[in-house]
Design a protein that fits this description.
This protein has 320 residues and is an alpha/beta fold. Helix content is 35%, strand content 29%. The mean pLDDT is 94.
Amino acid sequence: MLKAGVLGAGHLGKIHLRLLKESEKYDLVGFYDVDQEAGKKVEDEFGYKYFNDLDALIAAVDVVDVVTPTLSHFEVGKKAIKAGKHLFIEKPITNTVEEAEELVELANRHGVKGQVGHVERFNPAFVAVASKIDNPMFIESHRLAEFNPRGTDVPVVLDLMIHDIDAILSVVKSEVKNISASGVSVISDTPDIANARIEFENGCVANLTASRISLKNMRKSRFFQRDAYISVDFLEKRCEVVKMKDAPKEPGDFDMILQNAEGIKKQIYFDNPDVSPSNAILEELNSFAEAINNNTTPVVSLEQGTLALKVAKQIIKSFN
């Protein structure tokens, strides 16, 4: 079992602590939080060992799990890597692209593995259809959330939209060609609602909308490709795959047939895969342990986390 330590014991940090404790792949050593009073309170309430010295915790573990505010990611991540520890770091990987690129370089130099917490890659609905998404040419994504003061210190692009940016980059095998976007600040100092259009070199277009001032929650993405439509509901953990094939010469009474202006007939059918219930955060943590133990590339590498951040920063830049 890999010895693990968590940096940060806020809302998400507590979830990571609980799941690492439950996991069969990790031995939870303890956690560090800059707020000693809050740290002791978590220790008293849940029984996890609190370290009041960051260096002491890093020295005691094999894997450092960073669940601190984004602004601190670079410094604590750099400290962990230089100590020769594997690094799991929450999204976004760092505050700036330059910091992210330095973490990538450091990890390669010190021979440690790193994974970024883009948890939607492990959402069971996305996992169920990822292999069916083949050369999509139009993607539409909506990530809407009710207002929550937590997270409003960064633009909605880094708070919410970056989830969909990463998921889209993982299935579109092409370079980004052009980005245009608009964002509006309603209640925060940074944009609370944003729309972005990402054009890829292969002709694919992705249209993303993210909002943290909506009246209801929604996390849906739709992928359109030749002869198929794929829908993923990240919130409800459901997916739908609608495909088309040449219509049979003698269709059945219940076959759904479409005919275009040229007289070509296509049959519509459903190819919905089973969605296996799972905890996406536990899955991503366990997958990182497997990458370490098997010496394979993590599902969401530091390089991929850097690319998602780079695109997010381009979107924010285009607001101006």
